[in-house]
Amino acid sequence: MASVDQVYSSTTVPETKSRNCFTVPNEFLGKPRCLIKLVEVLLSFVAFILEEVVTNCASCGSLYFFEFVSCTAFLFTALLLFLLTTKWHTRVGINCWSTLDFWYTAVVCGLFLFASIFFAADNGGTDLEKAAAAFGILSSIAFAVDIGIFIKLKGLPFRDQTVIRNRDSNSGPAEVEKLNTEE
User: Which of 76, 89, 98, 180 sits at 20 to 30 Å (Cα–Cα) from 128?
Assistant: First the structure.
């Protein structure tokens, strides 16, 4: 009788465990988008730090809104980058990472641009406030570039589902065949 090693040795490949915890490129994130996401994290962090250094505010509402958006963008983009570059995304239980990444990036881009413009228009005019607003706009541009690269490489995530549904509905009636027929 053949041993287990003899039977399976020619048909199986031993599983190799990668010691590298960061895997880029992968199915969700290529090298260009990974670099853009790093730039987003850095720019939003600098915008947040510059905003935090502001000691007096003429209109605190715009400052607080900018603080919220820049801090949220920094933390959640760093988390998204960590999840997409490691194998942790498989443990979270989300199956639609591309769609989540697209919509998150689009929403943060819009919010950051709005908060930056609002803060630039309504601040005390100090150099720190102007610099924070400038880094907010730069961060918004980085998020917009990320969206553009995403669309160029993968297309719109919600259009793929529509195309598949339309293609399936135009193919005619589905074939039905009984698998286990008893005669």
Answer: 76
